[in-house]
Amino acid sequence: MNLDEKINWIKKFLNKNNLSAFLFSSVSNVFYLTRFRSSNAFIIITPGNKYFLTDARYFEKAKNELKEWEVVLIRDSTYNFLKKFIKELKIKVLGFEKDGVTCEFKERLRTKGVRFKGFSEVLKDLRIIKEREELEILKEGVKKTDEIYRYLIDVIKKSFFKKDLKLTELKLRGFLISQIFEIGASGESFPAIIASGKNSAIPHWESSNVKIKKNTPLLIDMGIIWKGYCTDFTRTIHIGKPSSEFRKIYDIVKTAWYKGFEKVKSGVLIAEIDKTIREYFKTKEVDKFFLHATGHGIGVEIHEPPRVYYQSEGLRKKDAEIIKDGMVFTIEPGLYFPNKFGIRIENMVFVENGRGEIYSEETLELETIE
Hints:
The chain is of the alpha+beta class. The chain contains 10 helices and 19 strands.
Protein backbone atom coordinates (compact mmCIF):
# COMPACT_ATOMS: atom_id res chain seq x y z
CA MET A 1 0.00 0.00 0.00
CA ASN A 2 1.55 3.30 -1.09
CA LEU A 3 1.19 6.64 0.71
CA ASP A 4 -1.86 7.75 -1.28
CA GLU A 5 -3.65 4.50 -0.45
CA LYS A 6 -2.81 4.90 3.25
CA ILE A 7 -4.06 8.48 3.28
CA ASN A 8 -7.26 7.47 1.49
CA TRP A 9 -7.78 4.73 4.10
CA ILE A 10 -7.41 7.34 6.86
CA LYS A 11 -9.81 9.72 5.10
CA LYS A 12 -12.41 6.93 4.97
CA PHE A 13 -11.77 6.42 8.69
CA LEU A 14 -12.48 10.12 9.24
CA ASN A 15 -15.75 9.90 7.36
CA LYS A 16 -16.83 6.68 9.07
CA ASN A 17 -16.24 8.17 12.53
CA ASN A 18 -17.53 11.68 11.79
CA LEU A 19 -14.12 13.29 12.37
CA SER A 20 -12.90 16.61 11.00
CA ALA A 21 -9.27 15.45 11.24
CA PHE A 22 -6.96 12.95 12.90
CA LEU A 23 -3.85 13.74 14.92
CA PHE A 24 -1.05 11.15 14.93
CA SER A 25 1.49 11.69 17.70
CA SER A 26 3.12 8.28 18.33
CA VAL A 27 6.66 7.95 17.00
CA SER A 28 5.81 4.57 15.45
CA ASN A 29 2.78 5.75 13.45
CA VAL A 30 4.47 8.98 12.37
CA PHE A 31 7.40 6.92 11.08
CA TYR A 32 5.10 4.35 9.46
CA LEU A 33 3.30 7.02 7.44
CA THR A 34 6.37 9.07 6.47
CA ARG A 35 9.52 6.93 6.95
CA PHE A 36 10.82 10.00 8.78
CA ARG A 37 12.00 9.67 12.38
CA SER A 38 11.74 12.61 14.75
CA SER A 39 11.47 12.89 18.51
CA ASN A 40 8.98 15.74 18.14
CA ALA A 41 6.71 15.36 15.15
CA PHE A 42 2.97 15.17 14.53
CA ILE A 43 0.74 14.35 11.59
CA ILE A 44 -2.68 15.90 11.03
CA ILE A 45 -4.85 14.40 8.29
CA THR A 46 -7.94 16.30 7.12
CA PRO A 47 -10.32 15.39 4.28
CA GLY A 48 -8.39 17.78 2.03
CA ASN A 49 -4.78 17.76 3.20
CA LYS A 50 -1.98 16.07 5.13
CA TYR A 51 0.33 18.02 7.43
CA PHE A 52 3.65 17.02 8.97
CA LEU A 53 4.55 19.24 11.92
CA THR A 54 8.00 19.28 13.52
CA ASP A 55 10.40 21.67 15.21
CA ALA A 56 13.48 23.52 13.91
CA ARG A 57 15.79 20.55 14.61
CA TYR A 58 14.12 18.47 11.90
CA PHE A 59 12.28 21.04 9.76
CA GLU A 60 14.79 21.50 6.92
CA LYS A 61 15.44 17.77 6.59
CA ALA A 62 11.71 17.02 6.61
CA LYS A 63 11.01 19.74 4.03
CA ASN A 64 13.65 18.23 1.71
CA GLU A 65 12.52 14.62 2.13
CA LEU A 66 8.74 14.80 2.52
CA LYS A 67 7.79 16.34 -0.81
CA GLU A 68 4.26 14.87 -0.70
CA TRP A 69 3.49 16.50 2.65
CA GLU A 70 2.79 20.04 3.76
CA VAL A 71 5.64 20.42 6.25
CA VAL A 72 4.94 22.90 9.04
CA LEU A 73 7.47 24.38 11.46
CA ILE A 74 6.47 24.20 15.12
CA ARG A 75 7.42 27.50 16.71
CA ASP A 76 7.86 28.16 20.44
CA SER A 77 5.68 25.96 22.69
CA THR A 78 4.62 22.72 20.99
CA TYR A 79 1.26 22.62 22.80
CA ASN A 80 0.40 26.26 22.10
CA PHE A 81 1.38 25.91 18.47
CA LEU A 82 -0.69 22.74 17.99
CA LYS A 83 -3.74 24.32 19.63
CA LYS A 84 -3.45 27.39 17.41
CA PHE A 85 -2.91 25.28 14.28
CA ILE A 86 -5.95 23.11 15.08
CA LYS A 87 -8.11 26.21 15.51
CA GLU A 88 -6.84 27.70 12.24
CA LEU A 89 -7.90 24.52 10.42
CA LYS A 90 -11.40 24.99 11.90
CA ILE A 91 -11.39 21.43 13.23
CA LYS A 92 -14.53 20.57 15.20
CA VAL A 93 -13.96 16.89 16.03
CA LEU A 94 -10.35 15.72 16.29
CA GLY A 95 -9.46 12.04 16.46
CA PHE A 96 -6.33 11.11 18.39
CA GLU A 97 -4.36 8.05 19.50
CA LYS A 98 -5.57 7.48 23.04
CA ASP A 99 -3.17 4.55 23.41
CA GLY A 100 -0.24 6.77 22.39
CA VAL A 101 -0.64 9.93 24.47
CA THR A 102 -0.40 10.82 28.14
CA CYS A 103 -3.23 12.31 30.17
CA GLU A 104 -1.13 15.49 30.35
CA PHE A 105 -0.88 15.67 26.54
CA LYS A 106 -4.65 15.46 26.15
CA GLU A 107 -5.30 18.00 28.90
CA ARG A 108 -2.78 20.53 27.59
CA LEU A 109 -4.10 20.17 24.04
CA ARG A 110 -7.68 20.83 25.11
CA THR A 111 -9.06 23.62 22.88
CA LYS A 112 -12.29 25.55 23.14
CA GLY A 113 -14.70 24.57 20.39
CA VAL A 114 -12.85 21.33 19.54
CA ARG A 115 -14.13 17.92 20.62
CA PHE A 116 -11.51 15.19 21.05
CA LYS A 117 -12.31 11.58 20.24
CA GLY A 118 -9.78 8.88 21.17
CA PHE A 119 -9.04 5.61 19.32
CA SER A 120 -6.74 2.66 20.01
CA GLU A 121 -4.65 0.79 17.40
CA VAL A 122 -5.88 3.13 14.66
CA LEU A 123 -3.52 1.80 11.97
CA LYS A 124 -3.51 -1.82 13.17
CA ASP A 125 -5.24 -3.16 10.05
CA LEU A 126 -2.64 -1.44 7.86
CA ARG A 127 0.48 -2.21 9.89
CA ILE A 128 -0.36 -5.85 10.60
CA ILE A 129 0.08 -6.69 6.89
CA LYS A 130 3.56 -5.67 5.76
CA GLU A 131 4.23 -4.16 2.36
CA ARG A 132 6.87 -5.61 0.05
CA GLU A 133 9.38 -2.91 0.99
CA GLU A 134 8.81 -3.56 4.70
CA LEU A 135 9.26 -7.30 4.22
CA GLU A 136 12.56 -6.80 2.41
CA ILE A 137 13.84 -4.52 5.17
CA LEU A 138 12.82 -7.04 7.84
CA LYS A 139 14.54 -9.87 5.96
CA GLU A 140 17.72 -7.80 5.69
CA GLY A 141 17.45 -7.17 9.43
CA VAL A 142 17.20 -10.90 10.12
CA LYS A 143 20.41 -11.53 8.14
CA LYS A 144 22.20 -8.74 10.02
CA THR A 145 20.99 -10.17 13.33
CA ASP A 146 22.39 -13.59 12.38
CA GLU A 147 25.69 -11.90 11.60
CA ILE A 148 25.84 -10.25 15.02
CA TYR A 149 24.92 -13.50 16.77
CA ARG A 150 27.78 -15.36 15.04
CA TYR A 151 30.10 -12.56 16.11
CA LEU A 152 29.00 -13.04 19.73
CA ILE A 153 29.59 -16.78 19.52
CA ASP A 154 33.12 -16.07 18.29
CA VAL A 155 33.68 -13.68 21.20
CA ILE A 156 32.56 -16.36 23.66
CA LYS A 157 34.73 -19.03 22.05
CA LYS A 158 37.83 -16.84 22.04
CA SER A 159 37.22 -15.85 25.64
CA PHE A 160 36.97 -19.40 26.92
CA PHE A 161 39.63 -20.90 24.70
CA LYS A 162 42.01 -18.23 26.04
CA LYS A 163 40.80 -19.09 29.56
CA ASP A 164 39.63 -15.50 30.01
CA LEU A 165 37.34 -15.78 33.03
CA LYS A 166 36.42 -12.08 33.07
CA LEU A 167 33.65 -12.18 30.48
CA THR A 168 30.41 -10.98 32.11
CA GLU A 169 26.87 -10.72 30.83
CA LEU A 170 27.20 -6.95 30.50
CA LYS A 171 30.56 -7.15 28.73
CA LEU A 172 29.07 -9.52 26.19
CA ARG A 173 26.15 -7.14 25.72
CA GLY A 174 28.71 -4.38 25.19
CA PHE A 175 30.30 -6.39 22.36
CA LEU A 176 26.80 -6.88 20.92
CA ILE A 177 25.94 -3.17 20.96
CA SER A 178 29.27 -2.23 19.43
CA GLN A 179 28.72 -4.68 16.58
CA ILE A 180 25.21 -3.35 15.97
CA PHE A 181 26.66 0.03 15.06
CA GLU A 182 29.57 -1.56 13.21
CA ILE A 183 27.21 -3.21 10.70
CA GLY A 184 25.24 0.01 10.19
CA ALA A 185 22.13 -0.60 12.29
CA SER A 186 20.77 2.25 14.41
CA GLY A 187 20.55 0.48 17.77
CA GLU A 188 18.95 -2.29 19.79
CA SER A 189 15.26 -2.94 19.23
CA PHE A 190 15.11 -3.64 22.99
CA PRO A 191 17.73 -4.00 25.75
CA ALA A 192 19.36 -7.34 24.93
CA ILE A 193 19.00 -10.13 27.48
CA ILE A 194 22.25 -11.95 28.23
CA ALA A 195 21.37 -14.47 30.94
CA SER A 196 23.88 -17.05 32.14
CA GLY A 197 23.43 -20.01 34.47
CA LYS A 198 20.39 -19.80 36.75
CA ASN A 199 19.70 -16.26 35.48
CA SER A 200 18.38 -17.86 32.29
CA ALA A 201 15.41 -19.10 34.34
CA ILE A 202 14.14 -15.48 34.56
CA PRO A 203 12.49 -14.76 31.17
CA HIS A 204 13.30 -11.03 31.15
CA TRP A 205 16.53 -11.07 33.09
CA GLU A 206 18.39 -7.75 33.15
CA SER A 207 21.99 -8.38 32.02
CA SER A 208 24.37 -7.97 34.95
CA ASN A 209 28.00 -8.10 36.02
CA VAL A 210 27.67 -11.83 36.69
CA LYS A 211 30.58 -13.73 35.13
CA ILE A 212 29.77 -16.20 32.40
CA LYS A 213 31.10 -19.54 33.58
CA LYS A 214 31.86 -22.91 32.06
CA ASN A 215 29.36 -25.75 32.31
CA THR A 216 26.38 -23.38 32.30
CA PRO A 217 23.65 -22.38 29.83
CA LEU A 218 23.68 -18.96 28.21
CA LEU A 219 20.47 -17.39 26.87
CA ILE A 220 20.89 -14.60 24.30
CA ASP A 221 17.76 -12.64 23.36
CA MET A 222 18.58 -9.76 21.04
CA GLY A 223 17.32 -7.55 18.25
CA ILE A 224 18.37 -4.60 16.14
CA ILE A 225 16.75 -1.62 14.46
CA TRP A 226 17.47 -1.90 10.77
CA LYS A 227 16.24 0.95 8.54
CA GLY A 228 13.59 1.76 11.13
CA TYR A 229 12.35 -1.82 11.60
CA CYS A 230 12.92 -4.20 14.51
CA THR A 231 14.23 -7.74 14.71
CA ASP A 232 13.96 -10.26 17.54
CA PHE A 233 16.02 -13.43 17.96
CA THR A 234 16.78 -15.85 20.82
CA ARG A 235 19.06 -18.84 21.21
CA THR A 236 20.08 -20.75 24.31
CA ILE A 237 23.54 -22.28 24.04
CA HIS A 238 25.58 -24.27 26.56
CA ILE A 239 29.15 -23.54 27.59
CA GLY A 240 30.75 -26.86 28.38
CA LYS A 241 29.10 -30.26 28.25
CA PRO A 242 25.36 -30.05 29.01
CA SER A 243 23.67 -32.46 31.38
CA SER A 244 21.25 -35.07 30.06
CA GLU A 245 18.42 -33.14 31.77
CA PHE A 246 19.35 -29.95 29.92
CA ARG A 247 19.49 -31.78 26.58
CA LYS A 248 16.11 -33.36 27.24
CA ILE A 249 14.44 -30.02 28.03
CA TYR A 250 16.16 -28.36 25.08
CA ASP A 251 14.74 -30.99 22.73
CA ILE A 252 11.25 -30.40 24.17
CA VAL A 253 11.49 -26.64 23.53
CA LYS A 254 12.88 -27.21 20.03
CA THR A 255 10.09 -29.64 19.17
CA ALA A 256 7.54 -27.20 20.55
CA TRP A 257 8.90 -24.51 18.25
CA TYR A 258 8.45 -26.73 15.20
CA LYS A 259 4.97 -27.81 16.28
CA GLY A 260 3.97 -24.15 16.56
CA PHE A 261 5.58 -23.34 13.21
CA GLU A 262 3.60 -26.12 11.50
CA LYS A 263 0.40 -24.24 12.39
CA VAL A 264 1.45 -21.16 10.40
CA LYS A 265 -0.96 -21.32 7.48
CA SER A 266 -3.23 -18.66 5.99
CA GLY A 267 -6.74 -18.88 7.42
CA VAL A 268 -5.73 -20.51 10.71
CA LEU A 269 -6.41 -18.71 13.99
CA ILE A 270 -3.09 -17.30 15.20
CA ALA A 271 -4.02 -18.43 18.72
CA GLU A 272 -3.67 -22.03 17.48
CA ILE A 273 0.12 -21.62 17.44
CA ASP A 274 0.19 -20.86 21.16
CA LYS A 275 -2.47 -23.48 21.96
CA THR A 276 -0.54 -26.19 20.12
CA ILE A 277 2.68 -25.43 21.98
CA ARG A 278 0.92 -25.39 25.36
CA GLU A 279 -0.81 -28.68 24.66
CA TYR A 280 2.52 -30.26 23.68
CA PHE A 281 4.20 -28.97 26.85
CA LYS A 282 1.31 -30.47 28.83
CA THR A 283 1.96 -33.91 27.36
CA LYS A 284 5.53 -33.59 28.64
CA GLU A 285 4.27 -32.34 32.05
CA VAL A 286 6.25 -29.10 31.81
CA ASP A 287 3.45 -26.69 30.85
CA LYS A 288 3.58 -24.87 34.21
CA PHE A 289 7.14 -23.79 33.36
CA PHE A 290 6.03 -21.87 30.24
CA LEU A 291 5.58 -18.34 31.59
CA HIS A 292 4.71 -16.05 28.66
CA ALA A 293 2.90 -15.79 25.34
CA THR A 294 4.32 -17.72 22.38
CA GLY A 295 5.02 -14.62 20.32
CA HIS A 296 4.12 -11.20 18.99
CA GLY A 297 3.95 -9.21 15.80
CA ILE A 298 7.03 -7.19 14.88
CA GLY A 299 7.76 -4.28 12.56
CA VAL A 300 8.24 -0.60 13.32
CA GLU A 301 7.84 -1.61 16.97
CA ILE A 302 9.28 -4.63 18.73
CA HIS A 303 5.81 -5.61 19.99
CA GLU A 304 2.84 -4.94 17.75
CA PRO A 305 -0.20 -6.92 16.58
CA PRO A 306 -0.82 -9.77 16.21
CA ARG A 307 -0.30 -11.30 19.64
CA VAL A 308 0.44 -15.03 19.44
CA TYR A 309 -1.54 -16.16 22.45
CA TYR A 310 -4.47 -18.44 23.31
CA GLN A 311 -6.93 -17.47 26.05
CA SER A 312 -8.26 -20.74 27.48
CA GLU A 313 -11.16 -19.05 29.31
CA GLY A 314 -12.82 -18.21 26.01
CA LEU A 315 -12.07 -16.74 22.63
CA ARG A 316 -11.53 -12.99 22.77
CA LYS A 317 -11.46 -10.70 19.76
CA LYS A 318 -7.64 -10.54 19.83
CA ASP A 319 -7.44 -14.34 19.92
CA ALA A 320 -9.62 -14.52 16.82
CA GLU A 321 -6.96 -12.94 14.58
CA ILE A 322 -6.56 -14.97 11.40
CA ILE A 323 -3.14 -15.69 9.92
CA LYS A 324 -2.70 -13.84 6.60
CA ASP A 325 0.00 -13.37 4.02
CA GLY A 326 2.16 -10.37 4.89
CA MET A 327 2.12 -10.93 8.64
CA VAL A 328 5.44 -11.11 10.49
CA PHE A 329 5.58 -12.40 14.05
CA THR A 330 7.80 -14.32 16.43
CA ILE A 331 7.48 -17.85 17.75
CA GLU A 332 9.40 -18.11 21.03
CA PRO A 333 8.51 -20.99 23.34
CA GLY A 334 10.50 -21.30 26.54
CA LEU A 335 10.70 -23.32 29.75
CA TYR A 336 12.05 -21.85 32.98
CA PHE A 337 13.11 -23.81 36.06
CA PRO A 338 13.79 -21.50 39.04
CA ASN A 339 17.37 -21.52 40.37
CA LYS A 340 18.36 -24.05 37.70
CA PHE A 341 18.12 -22.90 34.08
CA GLY A 342 15.82 -21.61 31.37
CA ILE A 343 15.68 -22.35 27.65
CA ARG A 344 14.08 -20.18 24.97
CA ILE A 345 14.27 -20.45 21.18
CA GLU A 346 12.95 -17.69 18.93
CA ASN A 347 12.73 -16.93 15.24
CA MET A 348 10.80 -14.34 13.28
CA VAL A 349 8.23 -15.95 10.97
CA PHE A 350 7.09 -14.43 7.67
CA VAL A 351 3.73 -15.54 6.24
CA GLU A 352 4.17 -15.92 2.48
CA ASN A 353 2.16 -17.85 -0.09
CA GLY A 354 -0.09 -19.23 2.60
CA ARG A 355 2.59 -20.64 4.88
CA GLY A 356 5.35 -19.66 7.28
CA GLU A 357 8.90 -18.91 6.17
CA ILE A 358 11.98 -18.25 8.28
CA TYR A 359 14.99 -16.32 7.03
CA SER A 360 17.39 -16.81 9.92
CA GLU A 361 20.04 -19.31 8.94
CA GLU A 362 20.97 -20.08 12.54
CA THR A 363 20.23 -23.67 13.50
CA LEU A 364 17.70 -24.55 16.19
CA GLU A 365 19.92 -27.44 17.26
CA LEU A 366 21.68 -27.04 20.59
CA GLU A 367 25.00 -25.29 20.16
CA THR A 368 27.70 -26.08 22.71
CA ILE A 369 31.05 -24.42 23.31
CA GLU A 370 33.48 -26.98 24.67
